[in-house]
What we know:
heterodimer; A: 307 residues; Rossmann fold; five-stranded parallel sheet; 11 helices; B: 176 residues; alpha/beta; three-stranded antiparallel sheet; 4 helices; globular
Amino acid sequence: MNWDKxxxxxxxxxxxxxxxxxxxxxxxxxxxxxxxxxxxxTLRGKTVITLFYEPSTRTRTSFExxxxxxxxxxxxxxxxxxxxxKGETLKDTARNLESMRPDAIVIRHSMPGAPHMLxxxxxxxxxxxxxxxxxxxxxxxxxxxxxxxxxxxxxxxxVVIIGDIAHSRVARSNFFIxxxxxTEVVCSxxxxxxxxDIESLGVKAEYDMNKAVRDAxxxxxLRIQKERGGISFIPSVKEYSTLYGLRxxxxxxxxxxxxxxxxxxxxxxxxxxxxxxxxxxxxxxxQVENGVAVRMAxxxxxxxxxx
Amino acid sequence: xKNKVLLDKKALERTVTRMTHEILEKNHGCAALSLIGIRTxxxxxxxxxxxxxxxxxxIKPPVGILDITMYRDDINKLKSPVIKKTDIPxxxxxxxxxxxxxxxxxxxxxxxxxxxxxxxxRPKKIQLAVLVDRGNxxxxxxxxxxxxxxxxxxxxxxxxxxxxxxxxxxxxxxRS
Lengths: 307, 176
């Protein structure tokens, strides 16, 4: 098994072998976070910059902790405090940052393809931390890691993803990752939030949530992407919540050992009820924990080794 | 050129038996002893030492598995990106740890292993046991217990084969 990629731009570009290598590597790195001394020297002397043009709590912190646990130095830049407010273009910002010789740049941007553009002009490794409604590869990797960890397998599972599918980069990356496995992937949500050609990704659309969750092994809830106009695709938040909010009654229709996932941030009372988010089936905080391990694996694979 | 057998099955068994006695003699038994095998063949040597210690003393010291990849000084040059798990199911603080590897060469693996253990806690002592000491050290590190010493030329490779992974027990010198 080998890894020869400079960048992580999307799940679409990864082979099944590469996906499993990330998961296995993450499995070894996960133990470090449970130790008293949460640090190994693997990326000593490396520098990781996170460049976030969209808000983030989890992803940015997760990348920073991942880099630090591997002994890399980290610098965080968010759009509000960067020279982008003075009119500097993304390309110029990136080229200027590269002059300070970082090894990896993690970028989040509302423009789909922004990481791909940077990857072409930079020698540093570029990691996509979410680009518009396009991809969020580390989220899909940590989701798959969590599914495999909790279920002991990936093949043969029914995975249901519910919510604003059309505007969700998490959903897209998950569709791309799950098609490598023998899984039944069903999405549900208002018809206005489900792309008409969704079946081309191997995903079945079921607009009735009560039918969608039947015998599900995994239920993944998504929030309405207000920043991408999601709210204008539904008559009202209240109606959306009634029809597509996850409550206890839905869990009873799923498999007995169903797991409930959410990439965060959650809008409690809209797409997920408290009783579910905090209930025994929820693995939402495990996802966050696993995110650090998966990002450690990605940083190690991208910059820990000579090309 | 022909391969040279340094230890055959019987000789390897006797060597491990002798090492067991040396470990027990030096530590006055095995009361505070734990064994840590370095991946891959160190694990199986550790298991064998554990068995022999149990046969002699009636006490089974715990065995841990150490993967040193994250601590290697040449990690950026490795061909394979795979990092396997470290599994040490006991507290490393305060006791004596016998670190076990198949072949000792430059000393760099041992350096990495010591650093890895120190990140897990503060053992009272770490002692090093290797089946073959092939010389040519690059760091000032030496084994406390060596099965055999063989000063190998740079073009010689010392291969430890154990039946758990290789289907047979032997130590051979392969010349390129």
